[in-house]
Write a structure and sequence with these properties.
about 1200 residues, mainly alpha, six-stranded mixed β-sheet, four-stranded mixed β-sheet, about 70% helix, P-loop_NTPase, transmembrane helix, transport
């Protein structure tokens, strides 16, 4: 290297052992000049790949871009001017050293590259280049040392000889300073980028590099949140990459690929097995079956692979930041050793100390910036993961088969969306510790080997012994997690059923018995949670004790193995800082392994749900159909599930276009199943089904959305006032609108709670009529209305002269009065078509139809001669049967039993009350004078939006939790933490005193005493940790039991009016996500808070005790911290509240969708409901994303 430069490469006397340090010209011309070049060349391939994958469109050539390009070009000229000057020296017979050719050439090419990169970034829409900002910063940093050398050294040498190089250097320095300043400025948005129509766009996308790495772009929201509590309108819109529709689309694409791969492998195995059967007719059959079954078990679509392919690349950027941060974390222990060495060395130059302190500060700042970038990527990955999973589950729930619905209740799927998705989201935060923790442990042990030699192997032995201990805890925790999720599913399922049937529970005063059922499940759940909490306490004990035990064994072996091994301050405190670095990975590794074990359970549950069979969209043909017919079924055999007996057999049925066909039969004969088969909701085992054009469906149990009455009728169609009024009149809804407080703008509660049974059915019918479909499937729409209303609806809507005349209508009915007016009648008996024909033809045959008429004639007489039951009683009856809604409640038997129950209730009600009074009451209700209602009604908001608290968290909230834990227990926990930290401080003070003990004859005295006391103090700390962890675990379980019991008791004793105006999803959210937070999030958070608080206090006490002057600094620092904390926490707290409030509508909308899935599919409104779900998820993430940033 000396020959390459023509001078010395390194001179310690010039650089280190002097009060005026300087680098040699050779070192400056090589290492210092090449560092920025190597940085740019190394990062360039990865950066070009990133730009290729993230092209945002080109930016118009601006003045800023022109200046940056021109200055880069001038820099290239300046660098190569030095190169030509070196060639000029050859001509002048002054041959320069090779470095004067190589360095200008390399730096010049790099500047040319930077110039080209400026334009390439502009063409790819980069507004602020982080790569070039760092490059120019490194150039300026590396120019500082040559600048100082030239200022203080050139005057002593020949000033004329290198004047050209001095001028070019100053020109170079000025240009790179200008480039650095220009790079910090931001370009305009790309020319062809999509126009952002959002009223409140997120400023992150268009912010500069420096703003992004310091999160300065968030400051405007923090200021706004500090001035006043944030509201929903203050939130920024989501970035395009974080929106649900885009994320779910990518994840669905990868999941479909997984399904295709598995299907291809199954097809290959099936082909092989077919060949075996052909070649080995006898013996090969069993072997083939085994082959197929083994393949089916081994090869299932992997949801994990789909997640990795979708979110892996983005997550890897965060992993890269984590790698840099891990490497930087070991810089400070080495610098600490240098600082202690500087203090011990009285003759060391003063600049050593200043430089070491400055490097320690710079290293800490750089670590902080990089670590928060890592966390930002991890948290955003987790957020996108949750968004994708919720979207996938929602889309899947719209298309799963009835057999899958039987095994998946609404409560279980809500748990998948809330708890299981949350677990996956939480795991991403520390998932990098899987590789980071072993890396940190290995690096720490390597540095410890340098300090303490082979004695560190004793510490390694302790860590190896702790591995099986942590492994056992992880395995046990995983088993308990499976058990706990089972109990949680059962509890949420039962709560969902209770809330759906709450009116019946209150009328029968069944609250205590159902509360006992819930509390019994909760008791079992808490038993499992208690075991899990105790295991976590042991894990915490291992976390706190492991670094100390490693340090103790290492120090003990080091000082006892050889008397000449002296534990001085440098060895002790550098080793101790390395042991403290070991603390985090030793703690996190078992926790992450345990979390992976727990999350694998959630992942399998989600994968199992997404792997369920889907309804075949092609089972009902909609394009090719026999001319003249609207519905055709040929040799149709249908079942509710592949493993069940067929519900419909040998169906052959042709429905002429424009005809009115009645389907009749006894209870359970398959009438509703036939309608479901036409909708494609059943498994088609055999035959062909074709339905011409669009379909409108009126189910037996009217499905009503939580929206206005008008929106329920329009159901996404464009409003036509004339048609709308005609539909209202035909469906006998005019009088109902006059009675409703807000007319057609009245908000209908969840499941139509503020409408009677008849009103709900008429709204459902109005929805069908307004849709103007080609085929109408009417599943007993007249069962829930009075006989005179039924006649009005038949005459005005369904019948030969109704609004639907000319349309194809298939009417399932028990109302025999209307049968003479229909075109055709189909009679079903035990799932088969018994008879078909007109009314007169079937009467003459005197078979199943005649028997049906004889059976139902008495009911019809009762309906006509005796008073009908009130709509309110219909509502009560429907609530009794229908509100225990599970996913599989559309099965026909349930619907038929319900109708039978309604009839029985009608007879009982008629017998139990005065019929005359009932009739008069009904007539009065129907003919209420219009003057009793307001002529102009303002829309009545039935269900209020969930509101968030504002301001600081009230002390009463903390006090409530302390009371739930137990005030004495809370104080005892704080006392234990005091004792634990006192022991830790005592151990460090003792270690400090030990290292200061004088060395006599190359050895230290009282080594065994020193080791013994140090061990006693450390073990005492471990004991306090164990006791405090167990106490906190017991307190947390007690609080969980108390708070859940209080919530359950309160909800069961809440008036019915509360349930009429509160979506069930909002209440379920309290019992699922919020109880999960109380059970599993708050206790570890309290543990972390108490640990951090007492460590901070003890550290300040120790510093003040050793350096009293530090107390003067603490006061302004504490004031600054207090104001900074108030400034940021105000925004962070409110964002958390808004996020919690916006989460409930996701689950409410999902529960509503699952209940009406068949209606949504029939009207082909699946995409619209998916968009609505995505919008609700996006609303939730709008508050969640800034909440993530506020914690940075």
């Amino acid at each position: 290297m000396d020959a390459f430069c023509g001078s010395s490469f390194w001179d310690p006397n010039l650089t280190l052992h002097t009060d005026s340090p300087d680098l040699t010209p050779c070192f400056q011309m090589t290492v210092v000049a090449w560092v920025p070049c190597f940085y740019l060349w190394c990062i360039l391939p990865f950066y070009l790949l990133y730009l290729k994958c993230n092209n945002r469109g080109y930016i118009v050539l601006s003045v800023l871009s022109r200046f940056k390009t021109v200055f880069a070009f001038v820099l290239w000229c300046v660098c190569w001017a030095n190169l030509f000057y070196a060639f000029h020296g050859i001509v002048q017979s002054r041959t320069p050293a090779p470095v004067y050719f190589v360095t200008p050439l390399l730096v010049g090419i790099t500047m040319l590259l930077a110039m080209l990169l400026i334009q390439y970034e502009r063409l790819h829409g980069v507004q602020s280049s982080g790569v070039l900002i760092i490059f120019w910063f490194l150039c300026v940093l590396c120019a500082v040392s040559p600048l100082r050398s030239k200022i203080i050294g050139t005057a002593a040498q020949n000033p004329m000889e290198d004047r050209f190089r001095i001028i070019t250097f100053y020109l170079y320095l000025a240009l790179i300073l200008v480039e650095l300043v220009l790079s910090c400025l931001k370009e305009k948005p790309p020319f062809f980028s999509p126009v952002n129509l959002d009223p409140n766009p997120c400023p992150e996308l268009n912010s500069g590099f420096l703003s992004k790495i310091t999160f300065w772009w968030f400051t405007s929201m923090a200021i706004q949140g500090y001035k006043k509590p944030l509201e929903d309108k203050d939130l920024w819109s989501l970035n395009a990459d974080d929106k649900s529709e885009l994320i779910v689309q990518k994840l669905q694409k990868e999941w479909d690929k997984q399904n295709q791969e598995v299907q291809q492998k199954k097809d290959i195995s099936y082909t092989k097995s077919s060949n075996q059967i052909e070649n080995h007719v006898g013996d090969g059959l069993e072997e083939t079956e085994i082959l197929i079954s083994s393949n089916a078990k081994q090869k299932e679509p992997s949801f994990l692979k789909a997640l990795i392919r979708t979110f892996g690349p983005y997550f890897l950027i965060g992993s890269f930041f984590k790698l840099i941060q891990d490497l930087l974390s070991f810089v400070n222990p080495k610098l600490l050793g240098l600082l202690i060495g500087f203090i011990k060395n009285k003759s060391a130059p003063l600049w050593w100390g200043y430089l070491t302190a400055a490097l320690m500060f710079s290293s800490a700042v750089l670590q902080t910036i990089i670590l928060h970038q890592h966390f930002q990527y991890c948290f955003v990955t987790g957020m996108r993961l949750r968004t994708g999973i919720i979207g996938m589950i929602y889309r899947k729930s719209l298309v799963i088969t009835n057999s899958a619905k039987r095994s998946s209740t609404v409560g279980e799927i809500v748990n998948l969306m809330s708890v299981d998705a949350q677990r996956l989201m939480d795991l991403t935060t520390f998932l990098n510790m899987v590789w980071s923790a072993p890396l940190q442990i290995c690096l720490a042990l390597a540095f410890l080997w340098q300090e303490l030699g082979p004695s560190v192997l004793a510490g390694v032995a302790v860590m190896v012994l702790l591995i099986p201990f942590n492994a056992v805890i992880a395995i046990k925790t995983r088993a308990l997690q499976v058990q706990q999720m089972r109990y949680k599913d059962s509890r949420i399922k039962l709560m969902n059923e209770i809330l759906n049937g709450i009116k019946v529970l209150k009328l029968y005063a069944w609250e205590p018995s159902f509360a006992e059922k819930v509390l019994e499940i909760r008791k079992n759940e808490l038993q499992v949670l208690k075991k899990s909490a105790y295991l976590n306490s042991l894990s915490t004990f291992a976390w706190i004790s492991a670094p100390f035990l490693v340090a103790l064994t290492t120090f003990a072996v080091y000082v006892t193995v050889n008397e000449n091994n002296i534990l001085d301050a440098e060895k002790a405190f550098v080793s101790l800082s390395l042991f403290n670095l070991l603390r985090f990975p030793l703690n996190m590794l078992p926790q992450v392994i345990s979390n992976i074990a727990q999350t694998s359970v959630s992942l399998k549950r989600i994968q199992h749900f997404l792997s369920n069979d889907e309804l075949d969209p092609g089972c009902v043909e909609t394009k090719l159909i026999t001319p003249g017919y609207a519905v055709t079924v040929r040799d149709g055999t249908f079942s509710w599930a592949k493993d069940l007996e067929p519900a419909l057999k040998d169906i052959n049925w042709l429905v002429p276009s424009g005809s009115l066909v009645a389907v009749v039969g006894h209870v359970g004969c398959g009438k509703s199943s036939l309608v479901s088969a036409l909708l494609g909701d059943m498994e088609k085992l055999h035959g062909n089904v074709a339905v011409k054009g669009s379909v409108a469906y009126v189910p037996q149990l009217a499905w009503i959305q939580n929206a206005t009455l008008k929106d329920n009728i329009l159901f996404g169609h464009l409003h036509n006032e004339k048609k709308y009024q005609t539909v209202l009149e035909a469906c006998a809804l005019k009088q109902d609108l006059e009675m409703l407080p807000g007319g057609d703008q009245t908000e209908i509660g969840e499941k139509g709670i503020n409408l009677s049974g008849g009103q709900r059915q008429r709204v459902s019918l109005a929805r069908a009529v307004f849709s103007e479909a080609d085929v109408y499937l009417l599943d007993d729409p007249l069962s829930a209305v009075d006989s005179h209303v039924a006649k009005h609806i038949f005459d005005k809507v369904i019948g030969p002269e109704g609004m639907l005349k000319g349309k194809t209508r298939i009417l399932v009915t028990h109302s025999i009065n209307f049968l003479p007016q229909v075109d055709h009648i189909v009679v079903l008996v035990d799932g088969k078509v018994s008879e078909m024909g007109s009314y007169q033809e079937l009467l003459q045959q005197n078979q199943a139809f005649a028997e049906f008429l004889r059976n139902f004639a008495p009911d019809e007489d009762i309906e006509e001669d005796e008073p009908t039951m009130e709509d309110e009683e219909v509502l009560l009856a429907e609530d009794t049967l229908s509100n225990h809604i599970d996913l599989a409640d559309n099965e026909p038997v349930t619907n038929e039993v319900r109708k039978q129950f309604l009839r029985e209730l009608s007879v009982i009600s008629s017998d139990g009350e005065c019929p005359g009074k009932m009739s008069r009451k009904r007539r009065v209700c129907d003919k209420k004078p219009p003057e009793t209602t307001q002529p102009k009604k303002s829309p009545n908001k039935l269900i209020e939006a969930e509101t968030a608290e504002t301001g600081t968290v009230k002390l009463t909230v903390f006090w409530q939790y302390m009371k739930a834990v137990g005030p004495l227990v809370s104080l005892f926990i704080c006392f234990l933490y005091c004792c634990q930290n006192a022991s830790a401080v005592g151990a460090n003070v003792w270690l400090s005193d030990w290292t200061n003990e004088p060395v006599i004859n190359g050895t230290q005295r009282n080594v065994s005493k020193r080791v013994g006391v140090y061990a006693a103090l450390g073990l005492l700390q471990g004991v306090f940790v164990l006791i405090s962890s167990f106490t906190l675990a017991m307190g947390g379980i007690r609080a969980a039991r108390t708070l859940h019991s209080g919530l359950l008791e309160n909800k069961l004793h809440t008036p019915q009016s509360f349930y009429d105006t509160t979506p069930i999803g909002r209440i379920i959210n309290r019992f699922s996500k919020d109880i999960y937070v109380i059970d599993e999030v708050i206790p570890p958070t309290i543990l972390m808070f108490l640990g951090t608080f007492f460590v901070s206090v003890s550290t300040m006490i120790v510093i003040i005790a050793s350096t009293p002057l530090f107390a003067v600094v603490i006061i302004p620092l504490a004031i600054l911290y207090f104001f900074a904390q108030r400034f940021y926490v105000a925004t962070s707290r409110q964002l958390k509240r808004l996020e919690s409030v916006s989460r409930s509508p996701i689950y409410s909308h999902f529960s509503e969708t699952v209940t009406g899935a068949s209606v949504i599919r029939a009207y082909r409104r699946g995409k619209a409901f998916v968009r609505l779900s995505d919008m609700k998820v996006n609303d939730n993430q709008r508050s969640h994303y800034p909440s993530i940033v506020s914690n940075r």
